[in-house]
Amino acid sequence: MNSRFTMAAHIVAMLAKCSAKAEGPLTSEVMARSIQTNPVVVRRLLGDLARSGLIETKRGARGGVTLARKPEAITLRDIYESVEEGELFGRHPVGPAPDCTIGPCVAEYLEGVFGRAEAALKKSLEGTTVAQMSEDLEARFRALNPSFEKSG
Predict the structure, then answer these.
(1) pLDDT tens-place values along the chain, 152 residues long
(2) CA gap 9, 75 in Å, rounded
(3) Contact 11, 49 (CB under 8 A)
(4) Which of these, 7, 66, 87, 103, has the minimum number of CB atoms within 10 Å of its CB?
């Protein structure tokens, strides 16, 4: 897994916060500054999130990005599956040597281990909605900033 999921979760959390405060759409430039990456990277992630139906984008002077569904209806698994490509664990690039006696057994054994780990990850991500994540993030922020007034 690379950082695409982390950045996409950051984007969706920002959009959920704007949604809760009834603020307008966000731009990729604003999101990129928050994530500390290039807006092009954000736009690629936004494309994946839009194709999955998690966000909506609107062009023009009043354009930007908003959530396409309520935060309660989006799970971290939805975000993960929108942006992650390929397998979580890298496999042997060319397979074990044909004359290796243990190689095929190791590969087969690891397939089972990797499969269970990937299933556990997806189950865990499925159990957390963007709304829950937003509540947890606000609670953490409040704990670090006791004078913070709840917004939204």
Answers:
(1) 679 999 999 999 999 998 877 787 899 999 999 999 999 999 999 999 999 999 999 887 777 899 999 999 999 999 999 999 878 888 888 888 889 999 889 988 999 999 999 999 999 999 999 999 999 999 998 899 887 665 44
(2) 10
(3) yes
(4) 87
Residue 105: both structure tokens together: 């057994």
User: How far apart are the two ends of the chain, measured CA to CA in Å?
Assistant: 34
Tokens 């509540």 belong to residue: 135
Max CA distance (Å), the chain: 67
Q: What is the 3-state secondary structure (H, E, C) of 30-85?
A: HHHHHHCCCHHHHHHHHHHHHHCCCEEEECCCCCEEEECCCHHHCEHHHHHHHHCC
Q: Which residues contact 126 (CB under 8 A, 6 or more apart)?
A: 75, 76, 77
pTM of the shown model: 0.84
Q: Output the CA–CA distances (angstroms, integers) from residue 77 to 16, 33, 53, 104, in the order listed.
A: 16, 25, 13, 32
Comparing C-alpha atoms, which of 137, 144, 92, 90 is closest to residue 118? 90
Q: How many other CB atoms are found less than 10 A from the CB of residue 34?
A: 15
